[in-house]
């Protein structure tokens, strides 16, 4: 009986072993696959729709896909001398159409931009609350967490007298965003330490820094050092990761993208790397070539 019991035990082990192995494989493989997928999604590549000449045009999603981007930063529309943005996404018909085209092309909306404030000061707009609310409504309709607000002419280094009113308005805007669970990422002319101090003065969870490599480079500052000074918590989940026009990113000798990735890795930052410029100056209007080259290069560094 003992011999039979031993034989039975050995036989069962032999029968069970393959099933145990298969079960382990079923458990382990999805975990590994998920880990790889998560690493690949830590840094996503987006592009500004106004820079690829598709501002609030339905074709922007197909073009973003053709360029090789994971997402697109959709602008609120022109501002100019209008009282409000020329914003199609204020209307349910266009909201539905844009969502459908994004899904069809498998391109996400990474962010909403108020690029109209590149050319004019938000301090010159008495209706700035209405303009920001329009943006927040658009973010909600398109299920977007973060918006871009360039402070443009609001240069605090050159015009320190505007600081109190700018801080007051940013506090109002930030609190509006925070109440809706959104973030407004601001681009300033300050260095990283200046941005940190400005955020402390504003004191709103709804305002963070939307960092742009170009600004740091043109001021002679090291991008990685600036990122470390800012820290993960002061950065929104968007970075304009391009330089001024001249050459595409793969030929840019003053941007050490591998070092920047190592810096962002060490900070634990994740989010959208948004392509704005870095066009070949000799072929600046070739959208597919310039932005396709930049997207492929960023993916080779951040997603390979």
% residues in beta strands: 5-15%
Strand order of the largest sheet: 1-2-3-4-5-6-7-8
Name the shape in a single word.
globular
Number of helices, counting only DSSP H or I runs of 4 residues or more: 10
Helix content: 40-55%
Order of helices and strands: HEHEHEHEHEHEHHEHEH
CATH superfamily: Divalent-metal-dependent TIM barrel enzymes
Rg result: 24 Å
Question: Which CATH class applies here?
Answer: Alpha Beta
Can you put this structure into words, describing what you see?
The structure is a single chain. This protein is α/β, with parallel strands linked by helices and 304 residues long. It has a single domain, classed as Divalent-metal-dependent TIM barrel enzymes (TIM Barrel), CATH 3.20.20. The protein contains ten helices and eight strands. Strands 1-2-3-4-5-6-7-8 form an eight-stranded parallel β-barrel, surrounded by six helices. α4 (128-142) links the parallel β3 and β4. α6 runs parallel beside α8 and α8 packs parallel to α9. The chain is globular. The protein starts with a helix and ends with a helix.
Describe the structure concisely for a colleague.
The protein is of the alpha/beta class and 304 residues long. Helices cover 48% and strands 14% of the residues.
Walk me through the topology.
Blueprint: H1 2-42, E1 43-48, H2 60-67, E2 71-75, H3 92-105, E3 108-113, H4 128-142, E4 146-150, H5 163-179, E5 183-187, H6 192-202, E6 207-212, H7 213-218, H8 223-230, E7 235-240, H9 257-267, E8 271-275, H10 287-302
